[in-house]
Every structure is written in C-alpha cells, then in structure tokens.
Model the fold of this input.
Amino acid sequence: MLGAIGLDERQESAYRALVALGAAEISDLAHRLAMPEPETERALRRLEQQGLAAQSSARTGRWVAAPPGVALGALLTQQRHELEQAELAAALLAEEYRAESDEPAVHDLVEVVTGASAVVHRFGQLQLGATEEVCALVTGNPIAVSGMDNDAEENATSRGVTYRVVLEREVLTKPHGITELSAALSRDEQVRVVDRVPTKLVIADRTLAMVPLTGRGAEPAALVVHASGLLESLMGLFEAVWREALPLRLGARGIEEDVFGPDTTDLEILSLLLAGMTDASVAKQLDLGLRTVQRRVKGLMELTGVTTRLQLGWHAYAKGWVARDLHDRL
Done:
C-alpha cells in the first residue's frame, strides 16, 4: 500500500510494526517480523532516510516511529509535486512531438516490437495511454499476454475508457474463457462473438494500433501502427468485424427479467447457444449437466410456443432476451 512513496514490502512491514509498538530494538522488531536482524536494520535505515523512523535519543539501540499523519503527509505532498512536474514535462514533450510529427516520415508510421517482454510492455502502454476507447479483436491463442494477465485493461476501464471487444468463439471454450468474459462484462465492456477473427488487433483512441507480426513457434513480435492510412484501414477492419459479430451478455445484464420468463441461467444458455456453442460446450462452461441444458432449452421452446431452435432464437431477439444492433447494418 505504501509502495507509491518508495517503500518495499519489508520496509512497510517494519514501519507498521514500529507504529504498533511505538518503539522497539532491532532484535525485538526482527523477531516480530520473522526477518534476519541485518535486513531489519536495513529496512529501518531506509525508513530513517524517508523520515518515517528515528533512533531514540533516550535509549541507545532503540528505534521509534515518526507520527504517520505528519511523516506520510509530507511524503505524499512531495509525491504529488513530483507527479505534477512529470505531467508538465509529459505535456511539453507531447506538444513537441506533435509539432515535429505533423508530416511524419513513412518509416516513422510503423514500429517493430520484438520479444515477449517488450510486446507485453508496449501492449500495456497502449491501453494505459488510452483516454477514450480501446477496440480489440481477440483470438483463442494469445501471443504474449492473456486476458487474465491484462491488468492494464482493468486500470483503463476504471478511468472511464470504454472497450469494444470481439472474441473468437474458441475463446469461450478455453479454461478461463467464461471467467474472462464475466470480468469484462462486469466492467461494462461491450463484447461480441464471431466464429473467427481475421487477426489479433488492439486500437487505442483510433490513433495507435498493435497487430502481431509472428506466428506460432516464433519469437513474439508485433507492429505498432501510428495514425495513418494504414491505421484507418485497421479501424475499418475492426468495424466490419464488429458489425457482423453477435453481442454476448451473461447474467441478463441490462435486461429486465419477467417473473414468468427465462431466469438468469436460461439467458446464459441462450446467449452461448446463439454464439454457436453446442449443448455439451454450454453445459461444460456453465458447470451444468447436459440434460439440464437440454431440459431448459425445451422449456424455453414450450414457453415461447415454437418447435425449432431457430424459431427460439428469433423469438429471443423479438422479446429482448438477447440483443443485436440491427441498425449497424443499415
């Protein structure tokens, strides 16, 4: 929690223990923290540099904690000042960059990122730098980072960045597919599904895109595309796939349930079936029995008075149990 002011886990533990004790000798503190005495002393020296601890003037070898309200308040004020200076420097650099890149050279429109760590870092940067919208095409085979590891996505959505994501149907069959989908929907992301997406793709604010450069077995690499005709083409590709994709919602998000209509599980089953999954796949993903899925589907058909699953799908759209933005096709 105090990492933002430069303390590591051991230093923070030492400070918390010292605050609780009021004052302590190194040996006592080391025993309380289950740390070797030399490491405990190093942690205290670091706290001393930060103004969070001091050696007692009344008793040699004894350490006391500085009052948190005063000491931490001073550090936070300093941190805020440094962040303001960094923001100012970033704004000035951005202005200088824009001035120099009004007519960028062709070779500056695309950059190549090579290596798993570099790809992951640039992928995170792209999302963390977004201010309005991130659009993505997601396949079932991540190159360097999976949805479960994408912390930048949660960070971006918490800042109000909207996400439009098209998933390849294979993603839903992966062990964590439904978990990732549920997490995305809980962050109010718009998620759609198609049989296959043409390529992995992520676009931030329509000004920066990232696409894979290598196939399976090769060292991970990607192209970062800056604002240009190529980027406009990639955005057009995304919009085309988005229009053809089927919206996928779990747990009846945004749907008012009818007392005599389908419950949440029914809607989950319908949504996955309309995405093209088989009864067996739906049962596995929702941790239900195959017969339970089939019984619920039969119940929905009886409820709607239809005789085929195709008719059930159309009825589901008409009733608003699932949604598709038909105006996108106009």
User: Anything to note?
Assistant: The CA atoms of residues 250 and 268 lie 5 Å apart. The longest strand covers residues 162-168.
